[in-house]
Automatic annotation (TrEMBL):
The gene is nad3. The lineage of its organism: Eukaryota, Metazoa, Ecdysozoa, Arthropoda, Hexapoda. Pfam families: Oxidored_q4. Residues 1-24 form the signal peptide. One of its GO terms (molecular function) is NADH dehydrogenase (ubiquinone) activity. Core subunit of the mitochondrial membrane respiratory chain NADH dehydrogenase (Complex I) which catalyzes electron transfer from NADH through the respiratory chain, using ubiquinone as an electron acceptor. Essential for the catalytic activity of complex I. This is NADH-ubiquinone oxidoreductase chain 3. GO terms for cellular component: mitochondrial membrane; NADH dehydrogenase complex. It is found in: Membrane; Mitochondrion membrane. It is a multi-pass membrane protein. It is an enzyme of class 7 (translocase). Belongs to the complex I subunit 3 family.
Length: 115
């Protein structure tokens, strides 16, 4: 009886998944929707177009400021293991470094994306 109930549940879930796939299938095909996304480049055009330096710089800026999560997340463990003074010095150093780097990028004009 237990085996039969399990088989019925498996068959029911497989049928529900199949029906959901059929119902949710999109029939409207568009060139934009069916083409792969290539970082803002049109994959159907000539592949040797000069690379946008501004796009590259925005990607680098994103990676730099994304690293702040890698540095800030373990600070909660540091706060529990070390003293509050050590935690304050570490967090102040990281935040000051990030603020100085944002000011430097702002002065260099890297944050002006509408050029």
């Amino acid at each position: 009886m237990n085996m039969m109930l399990t088989m019925m549940m498996l068959m029911t879930s497989a049928l529900i998944m199949l029906l959901t796939n059929i119902i949710a299938k999109k029939t409207f095909m568009d060139r934009e929707k069916s083409s792969p996304f290539e970082c803002g480049f049109d994959p159907k055009s000539f592949s040797r177009i000069p690379f946008s330096l501004q796009f590259f710089l925005i990607g680098i800026i994103f990676l730099i400021f994304d690293m702040e999560l890698v540095l800030i997340m373990p600070m909660m463990i540091t706060m529990k293991l070390n003293s509050m003074i050590s935690f304050s010095i570490t967090s102040t150093t990281i935040i000051l470094t990030l603020m100085i780097s944002v000011l430097h990028e702002w002065n260099q004009g890297m944050l002006e994306w509408t050029k």
